[in-house]
Amino acid sequence: MQRFRIGYVGFVPHPNFLATAAQDPALEIVHIPLEASTGEQIQALSSCHGYYVMAARDELPLPLHVHAELLGKLPNLLMAASYGAGYDPCNPEACTDAGVLLVNQAGGNAEGVAEHAVGMMLACLKRMPEAQASMIAGTARNRATLLGRELRGKVVGLVGFGHVGRRVAEIVKAAFGNRVLVCDPYLDAATIAAHGGEKVDFGTLLAEADVVSIHCPLTPETRGMINAAAYAAMKKGVIFVTTARGSIHDEAALFDALESGQVASAGLDVWEVEPPPVDHPLLHHRAVIASQHTAGVTEESRANITKIAALAFSELAAGRMPPRIVNPEVKPRFIERYTAAFGKPPIG
User: Fold this and answer.
1) Is residue 311's pLDDT more than 70?
2) Closest CA to 84 of 341, 269, 288
3) Which residue, 108, 116, 248, 280, is the most exposed by fewest CB within 10 angstroms?
């Protein structure tokens, strides 16, 4: 029986991937050292049917990003699976053109990311970053200068309403009774309402939300969407939180909005460059709480996303279409390629 070969570069996010894959005799795992030459890495990947791809774009060397140039060198590749829900290093259109399935692990780390987002909301409203900065600077005197606010009674605006956004809505409604506004052009009002939100347009969300939290993927449509004009359209004193992807929000414009007081405080887990340079102005702003794209880096989330990734490869190895396909339009071309490789078409 021909085994389904899966290559990964450097490391896996959690040993659960290897443990789960080891239970399926149809899978063969190929570890490709990060320190190997680019030529050696691509040569190893060229024999693989699957590529388990780092989700954070700055962790993976550019020549190993799943774009047209690399795909042209991987004649056997049938499926690329991102480590997480995001798939920044992968180009869906290039995958489709090459007849390659692109799969992510959407939902696998939703709890970890949602809890992180809500935690940042609370920290910003209670002015924890500013309090810490004052104590470190030795200027902490009058506590009244750090008068905070409570989450209860606030309007929470969510841009994007996938697995994470829905879990955030569930948490803030159950724990704090918040009104939740949702901007997601791909969902209808009934679907959003079923998960506790109110569908509104982007402008309405910005104008009415006390807290704006970003939960959409980075796409050509969302790149730079939270720009100077968007910050200006928000309520004065808004709390801004993002656990989505860097490049959706304009970092320089956010700094200006914090300086002017238009944005009262910000919780930032994602950055244009990760990690950001140590002299990044936002890292040193007293009203910013920062983390290094770690919202989903929990024991539970990583164990889950790696397990479901391994199971997705197992599904394909068994001749069944995997879940969470990012580019479903590839299916006709993919089925032709899979049939040529394994002698029969996949089911589903």
Assistant:
1) yes
2) 269
3) 280
